[in-house]
Structures are given as C-alpha cells and as structure tokens.
C-alpha cells in the first residue's frame, strides 16, 4: 500500500516537472494585450474566429519546437546559432531591438498589473495613480523574487499563477458557455466577419497574439535549467510544448467565448476592467472579481516570466559579443553580472512608460514584437535544414511547410500593422 500511494503522489509531480518549461513559455506569452485582443475580438466578431486561436497556437508551437530541436541537436542556443552561422552583424542588430522591446513590454506589463491590482484593491481615487503605484510595486516584487529566489522559486510561483489563471478563466467561460454547436462551428468552419472592413485585421491580430513573440526564445534557457541537454530530451520537449500550447489555445478560446457574450468597447488593460464589470452584471456580482483574479494571474505570470528570462538573452549576447565566450549555461547566466544588471534595468527603466497611455505603449509593443516572428521563422528554415549542423534532426517536409507558412503570414501581419 505505501508503494502505491507513493507512486500515485509521485506521478503528478513528475508530469509537472516535464511540463514546466513549456508552461512557462506559454504563460509568459499571455499578457494583457492577448487577453484584451481575444475578448475584444470575441465581442466584435463572435465565435466565428475560434479557428484563428487554434491556428495561432500551431504557429507558435512550430517555432518553439524548432528552437528546442536546434538547441538539443546542435548544443547551441538560438542566439549562439545566429552568432556563429550568420555573423556578428546579426547580434549588433538584435541587441538594440532587445533593448527597445524590453522597454515597451516592461512598461506594458507594469501598466497591466497596475490597472488590474487597482481594480481589485482600489486604494486611490485616481485610476492613473493606482496604475502607477501598483505597476511600480509589481515590478519591484518581480525583481526581488527573481534576484533572491532563483529559478526554483520562480517555478513554484509561476505554477500557482498559471493554475489560477487557467482555472478561473475556464470556469468563467463555462458560466457563459454558448452551447456546443456554436463553439464547434467556430472551430471547424473558418470564416472572417466583415465588421465594417476591420474583421480581417482583428482576426490577424488574434492569430498573432497567441503565445507571445520574443519570449519564445526563453524556452531554450528554461530547458537548460531543467538539465535537458541532447536529443534524447527532444520527445519530452515536444510533449510539454504540445500540452502547454494546447492549454494556451484553450485559454484563448475561453477568452473569445467570454468576450462573445458581452458587448465591449475599450482597449488594453482597461478592457479587462470593463469586462469584469460586465461579467458582474451578466452573471453574478462575484463573477467580475473572480475573473479579475484570473486576469491578475495572467499578467503577473507574464511579468515575472519576462523579468526572469529576458536577462538570459542579454547575458548570452554579452557573453558572445563582448567577452567572446560560448557555451555558458542558463544556470551560469543567472549568477552573472550582465544578467543582474539587465534585471535591474528591466525593473526600473520601463517605469517611465507608466506616464504614457497604456493604449499607445501596447500598440508600440505589438508593432515591435511583430517584427521578431518572421526573423525566427527564416532563421529556423536556414539553421534547421542543415544536415551538417542538425544531422538526423533537420527539418522534415511538414516543419518546412509550417515554418514557411508562419514566415509569410507574419510578414503580412507586420506589413498590415506598420
């Protein structure tokens, strides 16, 4: 009997250990903008766009799986790969892009946390003051947790945040469930509503918003933290990414369902507040608060994920282009001065963005982020098709078709946005 109990309690823990890197990259990619876009698109276009959520999840899975396969087969991170095979010029272009992206995403996440926390704890009469105060507080807490807690504490906190946001948002969608027939029709009958000529643009935004942009690179460092080195871990990575992006898709579908049941007007994190108020009226007084707690789990997990993982990218670039060293591990990066300097910079510099309109910050962040995905798709088409670098793990026909489709699709999205 003791052995049976031990086995039963061990299996869920082991499964979580397998899934955690994929869950981290999926949760980090779900920010206030993704929540807002999904709910607003659902409000405007209804359930007819559910298929777009699935397509977005497939695109991001293909990219992240390609990144993992490159790292496990070659032994290099993606940053090392482009530095070695594309030349130093790529790194010198990527660094200013990383700095610009970090400022706008940092400001957007602080503002999202600030607005959501102010809605839950209205200490200020002025909502903008509440946004600034709670946004700064969230940034400082994130920095302290990452600095002193390390990756192990980060994992535990993220597991709680991911669980809360997923359960609450799915429960809210269940409360507003529109019926099986309507949901299945939206999933398997692709259509784009007109919406005065804007339906196509909103559908593209929904597809592009699923699963994050630059944060998909962080998966490579998280699998290093979990001691996954070598191609023997590829199937484990493919499994955890498949489960994690499936959860991301379910989350996006739930947000579209929630939005489809309520008429919404607004943008950015303020839309989440409006959504919670409408839920309180449409369902029950407690439903709005219940939803805000889940939304807070989403935006806080995204902030904490960015604070913990994006400094890896800077430390990797610093190691390659300044110190001229390679093959540092994620564990070594977290103790390095460049990692800690970037964490501090990420904590404080984007605070200036709290003085600007959340809508404008979110728009600039989306524009800058949209430039990155086509670059990754193109790089993986080059790197992962080399038998010399990848051996038996080079791209197959499906991977090449999926990456090519992703490349041209996101080039089109970027062209539309700019």
Tell me what you see in this structure.
The chain is mainly alpha-helical and 418 residues long. The chain has one domain (25-417): Amino acid/polyamine transporter I. The chain is 79% helix and 0% strand. It has 18 helices and no strands. It has helices at 2-28, 32-45, 50-74, 78-86, 88-120, 127-175, 180-188, 199-209, 219-225, 234-260, 268-282, 285-321, 330-333, 337-348, 358-370, 372-383, 387-390, 397-417. It is globular. The chain starts with a helix and ends with a helix. The relative contact order is 0.20. Residues 1-9 have low confidence and may be disordered.
Summarize, please:
The chain is mostly helical and 418 residues long. It has helices at 2-28, 32-45, 50-74, 78-86, 88-120, 127-175, 180-188, 199-209, 219-225, 234-260, 268-282, 285-321, 330-333, 337-348, 358-370, 372-383, 387-390, 397-417.
Give the end-to-end Cα distance, rounded to a whole number of Å.
63 Å
| Poorly predicted residue ranges | 1-9
Approximately what portion of the residues adopt beta-strand conformation? under 5%
> Which architecture does the CATH hierarchy give at level 2?
Up-down Bundle
The SSE order reads HHHHHHHHHHHHHHHHHH
Alpha-carbon Rg, integer: 21 Å
Number of domains: 1
Main sheet summary: none
What is the fold-level CATH name, i.e. the topology? Amino acid/polyamine transporter I
Q: Regarding CATH, which class?
A: Mainly Alpha
Helicity range: over 70%
- Rounded mean pLDDT is 82
Total number of strands: 0
Number of helices: 18
CATH homologous superfamily assignment = Amino acid/polyamine transporter I
- Outline, from the CA principal axes? globular
Helix/strand/pairing category: mainly alpha
């Amino acid at each position: 009997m003791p052995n049976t109990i031990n086995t039963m309690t061990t299996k869920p823990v082991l499964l979580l250990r397998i899934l955690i890197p994929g869950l981290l990259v999926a949760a980090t990619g779900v920010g206030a903008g993704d929540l807002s876009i999904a709910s607003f698109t659902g409000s405007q276009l209804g359930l007819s766009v559910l298929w777009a959520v699935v397509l977005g999840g497939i695109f991001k899975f293909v990219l992240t799986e390609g990144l993992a396969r490159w790292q496990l087969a070659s032994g290099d991170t993606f940053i090392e790969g482009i530095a070695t095979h594309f030349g130093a010029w790529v790194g010198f272009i990527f660094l200013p892009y990383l700095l610009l992206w970090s400022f706008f995403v940092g400001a957007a996440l602080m503002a999202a946390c600030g607005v959501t926390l102010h809605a839950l704890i209205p200490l200020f009469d002025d909502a903008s003051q509440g946004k600034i105060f709670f946004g700064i507080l969230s940034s400082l807490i994130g920095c302290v947790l990452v600095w002193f807690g390390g990756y192990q504490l980060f994992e535990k906190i993220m597991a709680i945040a991911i669980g809360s946001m997923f359960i609450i948002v799915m429960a809210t969608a269940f409360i507003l469930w529109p019926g099986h027939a309507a949901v299945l029709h939206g999933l398997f009958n692709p259509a784009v509503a007109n919406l005065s000529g804007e339906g196509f643009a909103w559908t593209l935004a929904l597809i592009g918003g699923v699963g994050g942009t630059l944060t998909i690179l962080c998966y490579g460092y998280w699998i290093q933290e979990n001691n996954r080195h070598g191609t023997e871990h590829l199937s484990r990575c493919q499994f955890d990414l498949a489960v994690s992006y499936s959860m991301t898709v379910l989350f996006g579908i739930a947000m579209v369902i929630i939005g489809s049941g309520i008429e919404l007007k607004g943008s950015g994190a303020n839309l989440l507040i409006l959504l919670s108020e409408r839920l309180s009226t449409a369902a029950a007084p407690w439903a709005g608060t219940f939803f805000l707690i889940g939304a807070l789990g989403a935006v806080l997990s995204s902030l904490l994920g960015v604070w913990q993982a994006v400094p890896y990218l800077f430390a990797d670039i610093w190691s390659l282009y300044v110190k001229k060293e390679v093959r540092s591990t994620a564990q070594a990066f977290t103790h390095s001065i460049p990692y800690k300097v970037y964490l501090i910079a990420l904590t404080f510099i984007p605070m200036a963005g709290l003085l600007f309109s959340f809508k404008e910050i979110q728009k600039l962040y989306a524009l800058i982020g949209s430039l990155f995905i086509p670059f990754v798709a193109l790089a993986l088409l080059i790197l992962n098709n080399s038998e010399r670098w990848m051996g038996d793990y080079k791209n197959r026909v499906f991977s090449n078709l999926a990456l090519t489709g992703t490349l041209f699709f996101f080039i089109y999205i970027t062209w539309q946005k700019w």
